[in-house]
Write a structure and sequence with these properties.
6-stranded parallel beta sheet, Dihydrodipicolinate Reductase, domain 2, about 350 residues, alpha/beta, Rossmann fold
């Protein structure tokens, strides 16, 4: 943000990600005030007191404040109402993914805001990670040659709470959607076909929610590049998020650092002394900061929206196709799920 103007930002939701955002925002240049609200007023007060930001008793009071922008980090089912409410009041929005719980809800939000000049930035933080940006630049420069294979990995060390899973949308919409978005962004290509399968080896609550705790996906891009995506909830070694980009002349690997939870069994291997990443907040801490800084630049008019609701919709289409593929045990064209 290059403007000298300071801004007042609202924060809706003071759970784990909302609290982290509040801590980031209060330290960003150009932010004068952060005002937080939550469906649980006591949680908002406790978070505000801990972080040194303001708290208000409810969302109505938050929206009545003189806000220059709002960060939405509430439960997914509240996103559509809060996005459209903010846009109707002329308040620029940063909203954690997804826009809504399903395609129809996402399309409804897009239709509501499409004729407005108020920006709505969706939080896909991997777009701001230095490794993914370097891989994108390598592809664009042509130094890798033509691409033939990408391998994406998102493996959580432990599963989310049992009560989260029935409302998560499933492993493809909740977890894999980050990989689907970043694959589109890094390559500049579109996914045209998917084949997905999954299994349950862990807790019964995944199966009870018609979800899986482990999934494997094969994607075909519009230039016939093949992509594999591995998703899992039980990677006890640590939080493992990587992307391998393999081309005719070279490769680029994202996430292969001294904290990647990988152990070689080769006899001459020297293990890293650093602990593996325990979770997404630690792995993407810098990226989360940079995407919020980008939102400030969007507010000031210095930056075009780097991740729109339409981008989120495209990733959601891929996730939807994966779920259909898994349940029907067949390849699915992404065109089948488009509305």
């Amino acid at each position: 943000m290059t403007s000298d103007k300071t801004v007042t930002l609202g924060l809706a939701g003071t759970g784990r990600i909302g609290t982290s955002h509040a801590e980031t925002l209060k330290n960003l240049p150009g932010v004068d005030t952060v005002i937080a609200a939550d469906a649980d007023p006591e949680r908002a007060r406790a978070a505000a007191a801990k972080l040194g930001v303001q708290a208000v008793p409810d969302l109505d009071t938050l929206f009545a404040a003189d806000l220059d922008g709002i960060i939405i980090a509430t439960a997914t089912d509240s996103h559509p109402e809060l996005i459209t409410r903010a846009v109707d009041q002329g308040i620029p929005v940063f909203c954690e993914k997804p826009v809504a719980t399903d395609i129809e809800g996402t399309l409804a939000v897009i239709r509501h805001v499409q004729n407005s000049s108020v920006p709505v930035q969706i939080g896909f933080q991997r777009r701001f990670d230095a490794g993914y940006r370097a891989a994108r630049d390598a592809i664009a420069s042509g130094t890798l040659g033509w691409l033939h294979t990408l391998r994406a990995t998102t493996l959580d060390p432990t599963p989310p709470p049992a009560d989260y899973i029935p409302h998560s949308g499933g492993i493809f919409r909740d977890c894999g959607v980050h990989d689907f978005d970043i694959i589109r962004w890094v390559t500049g290509r579109e996914v045209v076909e998917v084949y997905a399968t999954g299994a349950n080896r862990g807790e019964q609550f995944f199966a009870d929610a018609s979800d899986v705790d482990t999934a494997a996906v094969l994607l075909r891009l519009d230039d016939d590049t093949l992509v594999t995506v591995s998703l899992g909830r039980y990677n006890g070694a640590g939080y493992d998020v990587r992307l391998e980009v393999l081309g005719s002349r070279g490769n680029a690997i994202v996430g292969l650092d001294d904290r990647a939870p990988l152990s070689s069994v080769e006899p001459d291997y020297v293990p890293s002394p650093l602990p593996p990443y325990p979770g997404f907040m630690e792995r993407f801490r810098r990226a989360y900061t940079d995407e919020l800084a980008a939102f400030l630049s969007v507010l000031s008019g210095d930056l075009e929206n780097p991740c729109t609701a339409m981008d989120a919709l495209e990733a959601f289409y891929i996730a939807e196709a994966c779920e259909l593929s898994r349940t029907e045990r067949r390849p699915v064209s992404v065109a089948e799920v488009r509305r």
